[in-house]
Specification:
Layout (H helix, E strand, L loop, with lengths): L1 H10 L18 H14 L2 E8 L2 E8 L7 E5 L18 E3 L2 E3 L7 H17 L6 E6 L8 H11 L12 E4 L7 E5 L1 E10 L3 E2 L9 H19 L13 E9 L5 E2 L2 E10 L7 H10 L7 E3 L4 E3 L8 H15 L4 E4 L5 H6 L4 E3 L14 E3 H16 L1
Parallel strand pairs: 3-6, 3-7, 7-17, 8-16
Antiparallel strand pairs: 1-2, 2-6, 4-5, 5-18, 9-13, 9-14, 9-15, 10-12, 11-13
Helix pairs in contact: 1-3, 3-9, 7-9
The structure holds zinc ion.
Length: 386
Amino acid sequence: MLLPLLQQLISIPSQNPMGRDVSGPEYLEGRLADFVEGFFRDLGVRCERTEIAPGRPNVVGYFESPGAQRTVMLDAHLDTVPVDGMTIPPYSPTIAEGKIYGRGSCDIKGGLAAMLTAFARLVKESPAGAANVVMTCACDEEHTQVGIEALCAAWTRGHANPFRRTPDVALIAEPTNLDAVVAHRGATRWRIITRGRACHSSEPRNGVNAIYRMGRVLAELEQFAEIVRGINPPHRLVGPATLSVGRITGGQSVNVVPDCCTIEIDRRVLPGEDPVAVIDQLGDWLRPRLDFEIEMEPAYIVSRALGDEDNGPLADELLSVVAEVAGPHQKIGVPYGTHASTIASFGVPSVVFGPGSILQAHTKDEWLAIDELELATEVYYRFCLR
Ligand SMILES: [Zn+2]
């Protein structure tokens, strides 16, 4: 059942547009949500579907275990990154030499298939002593993470979770090679704009060049990017805070002095850093160094970091199950963001764990090792039995 299920999940596109103005049946999570909702309904469990944005649902399934001592949240996102530039058929999964190929095989349909399979086995076997399980399948993880935010926010409004409380612990599926990710950095992304005054380029002194102004901003930011690495002590698992300028746009035509230039900033934040305050931190440093005004837009992405203060016992428990199933593995920190930091911010100890390597995620020939898929499925199942 596991491998055919994964093949089916890969064959249902759920590309995240990543903020681009694109449309078509291969985009958004609606069709995959239909499938997952049908999966839960076929099992006869309680299932909820919530539209977070048009065509972008969250789907949640509940396994109620008689006499359960605790509630485990299993979380796997529904979306994948786009398929541009892929060198293999993205939606026609192929299997060769112990690997399954296709968009999402590694991130995140492999993890989703493993969790759904473990969930279905719990429902069918209803083993004594099993935990209650909330399986959450949220939209838009790869871009703005509004799906998981909305899902967790519903808890604080007294949402009628059948267990009438937030989960006790959460496992978040992402490719970790079966290690337990206990810490990661967060990211804040926003735009800085310089303004000028347009004029004919044949006499540039009649205008003010917004691109030249941005050039001075960039020279300062290059310095600040070094300073920011030392603003907080580097975290022992995730390294230093960083800043990078990733995009620049400005000007309409080569014969017009530009009146506007925009850059986009990617600031990676450490556990314990306020992901919103880093915008003012940069502004306070930058403005005194400039003799013109800049505009700072509010962040369009704010994702918190995951710290390892509260999830140590959970990771230890998980790793003891992993050791039974797949041999010794370890607690690690990673540079990329996940749903775990949002879930943890609602007071639920959270660890990221799943099959596959982040090196294969988002790639042009994405694949997943089938043996890890099977091992992760067994780990999710056994973890919910403890
Ligand atoms: Zn992912």
